[in-house]
Amino acid sequence: MPHPFVVILGKAVRYAARLRGGGSALPGLFVERISPDFIKTTLAQLPHGIVVISGTNGKTTTTKMVVALLEAHGLKVFTNRTGSNFTRGVAAALLGDIDVKGKLDADIAVLELDEAHAVPFVKAIPPRYSLLLNVMRDQLDRFGEIDATAKMLEKIAQATTDTVVLNREDARVLRIKDTLSDQKVELFGLSDDLLAHFPSDDDMRSGVVTKSKRPPARVVLKKYAGNEATYAFDGHEFSTTLKLNGVYNVFNSAAAIALAQAVLGKDLAADKIITTIANVTPAFGRGESLVVNGKPLELVLVKNPSGFRLGLKSFSPEGYATMIAINDNYADGRDMSWLWDVDFETLSHEGVAQVAGVRAYDMALRLQYDEVKIGHIEKDLPAALRQFIDVNSEHPKRIYCTYTAMLTLRRELSKITKVEVVS
Amino acid sequence: MNIYGDHGNLLVVQRRLEWYGYEPEIIHYNVGDTFPDTVDIIVGGGGQDSGQEIIHDDLLKIAPKLHKLAEADVPMLMVCGLYQLFGNFFKTAADKTLTGIGILDVETFGMGERLIGNIITRSEDFGDIIGYENHSGQTFLGPNAAPLATVIKGAGNNAKDAHEGARYKNVIGTYLHGSILPKNPRIADFLIHTAVTKKYGEFSTDIVDDLIADLARETAQDRPR
Question: Taking the domain A4-279, which CATH number applies?
Fold first, then answer.
């Protein structure tokens, strides 16, 4: 059990950090420094153990869905809700949920972990279940190569004690199956028709998606059109409407169901899945919708080429004013090369009203070469946001932004509209 | 091979040619394809170690054609992985030697240390070249290769000397991503100008507005490594 002094001090730092707005990792960092075993001792108390969710894209929304599914079945769940998926983010979240004696009132922990941070984490604290979503090019300046990232996921799988849930449609993730001997493996996948919507980075430039023979999957997303999705699951088919948008979010709902099945076994109930999935909204900045001066404003987090491409594909620019905000801080990735692997031609009819962020000119340069018209370029985010809102007051708005740009924009937006409080 | 935005280099060559009033034809050469008869500019990208092994045999097969083109002053830009394989050899960290095609007199050794970060180099021909490097292979120049540039900030070819990239005739090898050509239009124009004057004897009088590129360069120069 962690020292009460550590807990109280940590809680105080957490409160102070929240007053500042944004960043959630700082208080965790503080506790991590003064009590390294803090997370381990706190999580070891949980009767259903720990679930780790990792992969390049969709961790946060998937985690949200898994939590909702488990809660719908009566479990008390601890999770790191903010998308602060480094170890210290977990510590920060724990600080919010434990009592001053360090006791966590939960049955199970569902943790979203960044690939690189997950490896030392699972080594210290082996999870009972893991869900590995995908490996795509993201933050290669931190991880080196995409194959190295796949290796990290492999380590998470190998440290898992009970069941590993894998994406059948990502060759690098599926391959992990062959490295496991002690764990149960469950797969989630797509029907052949839907597979064409998911070119991997390897297929990206060739435009060819290979439909080789694939092993059977426990949960398959069969159809997705408009706001309705159909799943095949254990020989049954069921459909549900969705509040989620974006094909990638919808595919990850299949992942969440497969994981819930691994945890709950035959207690998993189809009617509860349907109502839960139908009501899940996108996570923090993953297609989140706010209202500014009576017009909707959507925030879409973009972190890597595949995510950006899927975002552009999911949201029609028609009728919308678009802003793109690109930072290159450590958490965003410093290399701007990734912008050149996204096609922006879908924006060429409407143009981009505002380009912003530290690397605004890199983004503008990218748009110049796709011959997309630009309204204004302003590096300073608060100034750019004000200009964007003033100039486009009559239009619904959409902002594509990198992680740290999103933190700043949310802080600015919270001064003028209601922004869901995340802690 | 395409990783780290090498597509950007191709797009820049294509668009600038269009803006200068030409109609470029882009041919994507992949393993096993028939090598085209007429080539005016070649742009090659980086890849992971596994990708390099896949293209290796095919590259050796077309090497005589590439040599002939290089000797005929055809401009080429080879970034990262293909820069290494345009050299004499690449000895990987696992002690496996991949023979290169030897157009550039350079040798590359896979190392444990990865050289990563923003990089600025200075070249007599192209001024300051600004980009991002990310490689574990370290490259050393032989007597018949000239460096493309001298490193001002960052690592470049290796952790020992200040060289970045290599140059032989109009063949440029470099470790710079970013992508390199968008933020360094002088290199793009060198490739284009060389190819067009070789083909038509003269070059367009049109001018491309590089204001945004200049501003992006200004930002990049001030960013941490």
Answer: 3.40.1190.10
Q: How many domains does chain B have?
A: 1
All structural domains of chain A with their residue ranges: 4-279, 286-413
Say how far apart CA B8 and CA A338 lie, in whole Å: 9
Q: Å from B133 to nearest chain A CA?
A: 9
Q: Which two structure tokens, joined as six digits, stand for A162? A: 């009970």
Q: Which of 3.40.190.10, 3.90.190.20, 3.80.10.10, 3.10.580.10 would CATH assign to domain A286-413?
A: 3.90.190.20
Give the residue from chain A lying closest to B176, CA to CA.
Answer: A337
Is-contact A242 A278, C-beta < 8 A? yes
Is A163 in contact with A122 (CB distance < 8 Å)?
no
CB pairs under 8 A between A and B: 95
Residue B193 appears among annotated catalytic residues: no
The pTM (predicted TM-score) of the whole model is 0.71
Please state the ipTM of this predicted complex. 0.95
> What digits encode the pLDDT tens for the residues B59-117?
999 999 999 999 999 999 999 989 999 999 999 888 889 999 999 999 999 998 889 99
Which of B30, B179, B212 lies nearest to residue A337, judging by beta carbons?
B179
Structural domain includes residue B25:
no
- Taking contacts as CB-CB distances below 8 angstroms, the residues of chain B near A366 are 8, 182
Chain Cα centroid distance, residue B53? 19
* A259-315 pLDDT tens trace: 999 999 989 998 999 999 998 877 655 666 788 988 889 888 888 888 888 788 878
Q: Token digits for A294?
A: 């009576």
